[in-house]
Design brief:
Length: about 230
């Protein structure tokens, strides 16, 4: 049986968290990072929303004008890509202290394979806790981590207990873990794919797992094997 040595590390509300860290007056306030900082007058979209803003329904990719209507107290902050890039490099450097097998998939998230790192750093769960503590201690940011046997399950796990979460899926429990969750939780399943799956009565990952693989292959082509759980 495979061992749970795959970690998915995901920074919480990354852009917004960096701004709140660097600007104490923004801490505890609903903020949206996006556009040129002009707020509702900008035609751009939200790049990141603080958790205070998310309570109002503000989320990434939302038009700034819509965000302003949802949260009249929303503070708009201009995107500072260079700063976020510098902090991202610091985070990835921390991850590489634990294993050279780091696969960065975006500015604020990465997969790690910690197989072989246990002698130096402890179990995968202990490594996850250590990574979270170091990121807080050195960068004053929080990260959520999923630990599992596969990238897909680890990524789903990291998103379940945000912010500052740690979810471990033991080997052999992947199907039971995924089954009750909505298919929107799956990596790569967007609105269009979810709408097509809904035509087959698929709402949860358990529903998806019950579909015949050949049906998925016929309907989704190359995407079919990816969806086969």
């Amino acid at each position: 049986m495979s061992r749970a040595t795959i970690l998915h590390v995901d920074l919480d509300a990354f852009f917004a968290a960096v701004e709140q860290r660097d600007r104490p007056e923004l801490r505890g306030k609903p903020i949206a990072v996006g556009g040129g900082g002009g707020g509702a007058s900008d035609r751009g979209v939200v790049s990141a929303a603080s958790y205070e803003a998310r309570r109002y329904g503000v989320h990434s990719a939302m038009p700034l004008r819509t965000a302003a209507r949802l949260c009249p107290e929303l503070v708009f902050v201009r995107v500072d890509g260079r700063k976020y890039g510098r902090v991202s490099k610091q985070v990835m450097a921390i991850l590489r202290r634990y294993t050279p097998a780091v696969e960065q998939i975006s500015i604020d998230e990465a997969f790690l394979d910690v197989h072989g790192s246990e002698i130096l750093h402890g179990t995968p769960t202990e490594i996850a806790r250590s990574i979270k503590a170091v990121i807080v201690g050195e960068l004053e940011l929080t990260a959520s981590v999923g630990v599992a046997t596969t990238k897909l399950v680890a990524k789903v796990a990291s998103d379940l207990d945000k912010p500052d979460g740690l979810v471990v899926v033991p080997p052999g429990e992947e199907a039971a873990f995924l089954a009750p969750l909505p298919i929107s939780r799956l990596w790569g399943v967007g609105q269009k794919t979810a709408a097509v799956l809904a035509e087959f009565g698929v709402r949860t990952n358990g529903d998806l797992a019950a579909l015949p693989d050949d049906l998925l292959a016929r309907r989704f082509g190359k995407m079919g094997p990816v969806l086969a759980l």
